[in-house]
Amino acid sequence: MTPPEETGGRLSEKRFRAVGWLMQRITGLGLVLFLGLHFWLQHMPNGFLATAEEYNLMLQQREMLTQGGQNPTGAWTAKEALPGEHVITYSKVVERLRSPLWKVIDISLLLLALSHGMQGLSRVLGDIIIRARLRRTFVGLGWAVAALLAWQGIRVIMIAGMNTG
Amino acid sequence: MLHKRERPGAPSFRTFLSTVFSYRKKAGMAAWMLHRLTGLALVLYLVMHIIGLRSLTDPVLFEAYVSTFRSPLFKIAEVLLLGSIAYHAFNGLRIAIQDAFYRSENQRRLFYGVLAFTAAVVIAGGLVLLYPYFIMPLLP
Fold first, then answer.
1. CB within 8 Å: B51 and A128
2. pTM over 0.90
3. Domain extents for chain B?
4. Does residue B131 sit at the A interface (CB-CB below 8 Å)?
């Protein structure tokens, strides 16, 4: 008789699932704090976003730059802010990310989200894909994509605030 | 190698679907389904979010990137995103609490608590997010 899926598989796979179960709780609790903070900072009106007045003033200044021929791309597709709208801008994000503490917080959030998401996805794949080898291939592929995204994200967070004054 | 035909009732997409449609509608099943759906949606969003944020290396690209999401339709999507995060977070906390204390007789009440907290976050956050696009234009 073959054992049911949840308890089956190699010993290493079982151990991996047990560690995954615990990690999912730890990263989940971390995300409640970090993602809550992240959504509050970047989506709710506060000092980490530009007000409509600040944003429209910035657009005016940028348009002057474009007319002066100093904007190399020339493709400016930003929209004017509505009254009461708060907009996330390059300078606000870079200003925040100049502090090493914010870099650490954002990289932690990135890694927590990727590991929690990938762990959850491999649980779902484990329920859908019955063939052990195929499942391992897909889960491995998922972790490879997650590693690639982690590298991309860390690179962007580290570069922010470094190259421009 | 294990094969589907040798193991009837083994987890597969087909058994998943037949389970979903054979199940009596209960709070626990709804909680599990919603947790999976919001989880998968958030993974998809996370991937797009990280790829999109590569524009943070260039000011012009970044303002253009942000502006594409500043429309009435995307503001509604942002509220849905907030709802997915809130539900997944509160339900995840409920699962962690149940795993730790295993008070199974309280699980339905806890689930209704999850729905109430999610609704509160969506209403409070949604009003703030939708204000400049949907509420401000209506004001005299």
1. no
2. no
3. 26-138
4. yes
